[in-house]
Amino acid sequence: xxxxxxxxxxxxxxALLALVLLCACQPAAEKRGEGDAEAxxxxxxxxxxxxxxxxxxLSGEGVAAEGGASGHPPVVSLDGEGLRLVDPRSGATxxxxxxxxxxxxxxxxxxxxxxxxxxxxxxxxxxxxxxxxWDDGLTLYSLDGLFAGWSLDETGAPAAAPAKGKSAPKLxxxxxxxxxxxxxxxxxxxxxxxxxxxxxxxxxxxxLSGILDGTGGKARVTNLWSGVNCVFR
Length: 233
Prior knowledge:
This protein is α+β, with helices and mostly antiparallel strands. The protein has three helices and eleven strands, in the order αβββαββββαββββ. The strands form two sheets. An eight-stranded antiparallel beta sheet has the order 4-5-6-7-11-10-9-8. It is globular. The termini are far apart.
């Protein structure tokens, strides 16, 4: 009569099992550590970025902007949700949105625009606002340590003389609206609401607000802002 053979499932010893689990956990922990380090080095490490987005080299000293995927420095663009960095060759954009910590905002903005005048506006409706300001009329506001708003006016001049044969850089939205744009140009790209307020001929469009110097089609934009601001009505 044939002998009956019983089989039993192999069970690893407790010590071996613990070793296997420890090895399985180590790569994940290392990966998390790398992610945390990346987030500290790059303010936008956790943002979802399109392929070819412009990058800003935050290493080393100085404030010079480094080229992104195209090898050219990104251009600052105004946006209803903050700022955008635009690759001048590919057109890919990278958000620098409201809510970015103030120290990271300063680091990136000064890389692109040079040293800013810093200060604090105490008497604003939303509360005290710290600010970064440049000679071209751009001011970035932070509330409670977070980027909260920006404003642009026509009082400033370009921070640096333009290179020979090139025009001075002008801050605009991606649609090309900035200081000096006409009412007709504004309405051509935005469904803007325009009304008379205590500030003058005021408009609102896509998260942007601003002032026109008149009511006709050739009236020009004199001020632009978005987010939290010191606007006294």
